[in-house]
Amino acid sequence: MAEKLLSQHNLTGETVKAGDFVEARIDGLMCHYHAWDPMYDMPAEFGFTGGLPRVWDRERVFVLVDHHQPALSQKLADENARTRREVNRLGIKCFYDAEPGIAHQMVADYGLVRPGELVVGLDSHTISYGALNVGSTGFSRADILYALLFGELWFQVPPSIKVILNGYQPNYPIAKDIILYLAGKYGEDFAGSMSIEYSGSLVSQLSIDSRMCLSAHGVEVGAKYAIFPCDGKTRDFLKGRTDKPYEPLTPDANAVYEKEITLDVDNMPFVVAKPNQFGNVCPVNDVVGIKVDQAQIGSCANGRYEDIEIAARALKGRRVAKGVRFIISPASQQVYLRSVKDGLVETLLEAGAQVVTPGCGICQPKVGFLSDGEVCISATTRNYKGRKGSLNADIYLGGPLTVTAAAVAGKIVNPKEVFNEL
User: Is the dihedral angle over the CA atoms 94, 98, 99, 105 positive or is it negative?
Assistant: First the structure.
């Protein structure tokens, strides 16, 4: 798929293969709260004293003030105001300023990208759009500056790795367990500088929410792209969100892959990543009994409706353990609204959970800081030292059901021991 994508977008029109360098046109560009930097400060350093003189296409630059909306400090409020000024000056049409949420979820919510497109963004988790059969990847601010001006960038065509997922989807999300299991077994760089293509009997069963979790985590295992096929679920998701035509990416029947990995999810245990490394993975049974002070569900990996729904379903009739802070952050305002309408938020609050503003704060040291010696189990993106404030706190990563089980038990447990009805 990556070779086809970059061949189709190659400015010369020539077919390219893995390892080739190519100048390619892009279909969309996402900037988040740091948009002011490539739009004004960096251009000023290069001699554009008034900032970027223009953008290549005012309809295809998407700016979403996500990480810090509402603003969490005076500094961030001032930076948001700078982004607002630059967007207005440049006449950018797609601007979400006063709506809290994570840019990547909002890009999907509003149908800003489509199958077969090449999209770049000012954030490593731009790779998330691969869930919608989009070739998407993150770039540095200098690269984004160039793309803003010209609507094109250079790429090296990555080799591809085929990840075959077989088995059956249980009645709870398992995408987080899948990517953690793969990182633990094959190393957290098993897709280093490659394009992941997901296939297998499980894929058609996976929701768009689960696909976005797996695509988002492509960057945690070193991938440049993490692309799912376009199928009925993709098309159903896009209905009502976009009326623009699209041409899905499909691999040739005789496509050659750098490597192939097969996972039968029916035989996969619940797993967690132990502190400080995404690939420091073990079965949850190896760490049962570890007391937790905080549990979290959110981020561009796990703040979606299905993650919130399973937490509410599992908590129905139960309570969060005394002394545990169970914090849930929807990925977007649309996800939040759906969760409210379906009664999930009421169930969560009655059980003792906290529901906070949609956005990226739950994944960073912005919301829910940890103190020295505290333990957090989290369905977010990363668990490196200091990710939640203290350098002397421990962060475990797990799926939303594993996190909810720990919140109820007050310690890490196998979810089946707490929720035997699932």
Answer: positive
Using an 8 Å Cβ cutoff, are 225 and 158 in contact? yes
User: What strands, in cross-sheet order, belong to the sheet with 225-227?
Assistant: 225-227, 195-199, 160-166, 259-264
Integer Cα distance of 360 and 100 in angstroms:
9
The helix (run of H) or strand (run of E) holding residue 273 is strand 271-273
Check: CB of residue 381 under 8 Å from CB of residue 217: yes
Q: Residue 68: which of 105, 30, 100 has the closest Cα?
A: 100
CB 382, CB 349: distance < 8 Å:
no
In order of their start, the domains of the chain are 2-262 (3.30.499.10), 273-418 (3.30.499.10)
User: Hey, what's the torsion of the CAs at 33, 35, 36, 38, to 10 degrees?
Assistant: 150
* pLDDT at site 338: 98
pLDDT (0 to 100) of residue 153:
98
Tell me if the pTM is above 0.90: yes
* pLDDT beneath 70, residues of the chain: none
393-413 in b/e form (b: 16+ CB < 10 A) is bbbbbbbbbbbbbbbbbbbbb
